Amino acid sequence: MSNVSKTGTDDINNATNPNTFGRSVESQAQIADAAAQGSPGSAGEPLRIYRLEPIAAPDDPRWANSPGHGVVVVAARTPGDARIMAASRELDFMEVDAAPAEDVTTANASAFRDDKLYTVIEIDRDRTDVSRGILEGNISVDTIRPVQPD
Asked: Is residue 63 domain-resident?
């Protein structure tokens, strides 16, 4: 049984709408957000400075899945944006020629995005003299370990 209802017109109702993928306001916003994820942002944009610090114990089993990078200082719009900026600097399975499964990204598995591994501390605000991105700290790209030994 269909959940399609027809209301007083003689037009054929085939339960579709004229929208096309990627053209809705929501889709356009998501596409713009994805493009801006790792971009430096616009000049003069007021940003906040955040320090991402590891808070889990060194022997916490979560570190086995998401290696840490120490303390990192980031210029970002929000605490969540600071986590995304830091995670975007890590190497992703999609950037190498071997993905763990079809259409899978490891960006969401970053230690920076885990609030049990890293905390975000705001240390300054309304800074227009910095660009969105990493200000201090070293984020290595060896987060993906080879499957086969060298």
From this structure: yes
Range of the domain at 52: 46-94+106-143
Structure tokens at 78: 């929000």
Mean pLDDT in order along the chain per 10 residues (150 residues) = 59 62 64 60 79 92 80 92 85 53 60 89 93 87 54
Residue 75 in domain: yes
CA-to-CA separations, 114 to 38, 71, 87, in angstroms, rounded: 18, 14, 10
In the chain, what are the helix, strand and coil shares in percent, each to the nearest 5? Answer: 25, 20, 60
pTM of the shown model: 0.62
Number of structural domains found in the chain: 1
Tokens of 25: 């306001």
